[in-house]
Amino acid sequence: MTNMPEAKLAREAELCYATLALATDYDVWHETHEAVSVEAVVQNLLKNVATAKDVLRRVIPAIAPPRGCECPSLLKNTVITNPKAFPGATRKKLELLLDPYFPRERSRRAPAAGHPRSKPASRSPLQ
Q1: Where do the domains of the chain lie?
Q2: Which of 10, 28, 81, 107: CA 20 to 30 A from 44?
Q3: Known catalytic membership, residue 27
Q4: CA 84 – CA 62 distance, rounded (Å)
C-alpha cells in the first residue's frame, strides 16, 4: 500500500504530512520467512500500537507550531485559472482551500421583502 493519495491531498490542503509505517508481518514478500498466523499478526499489531504511541509522544512536541515550512501557503501560486472562471459548484466545494487566496466578491443584494432594511412595497395606482 502507498500513501500517495493521502500525501497529495495533504499537500493540496496545505497540511504538513508524514507517515509512520510499522509492519505486522513479512510473509507476503519475504520468501524465507515462515507462514504467519493471525495470532502473530495481532501480537505484532499490538506492539506496533505501543511503538506508534511512543514515537508520537516524543515527536509531536518537537514539531509543534509555529511552522517554518512552506506547507501553509503551498496553494498561493498554484491556481492560474482566473477566479471568475471557477464554476459556482466547484468554487463552493473548494472554498476552504481557495478563499485565502481568492476571496469571494460579496455582491450587495437587495434585502428580501419583509426584511427591516427592505423598501416598502410600492402600491399600484389601483390600490
Answers
A1: 17-63
A2: 10
A3: yes
A4: 42
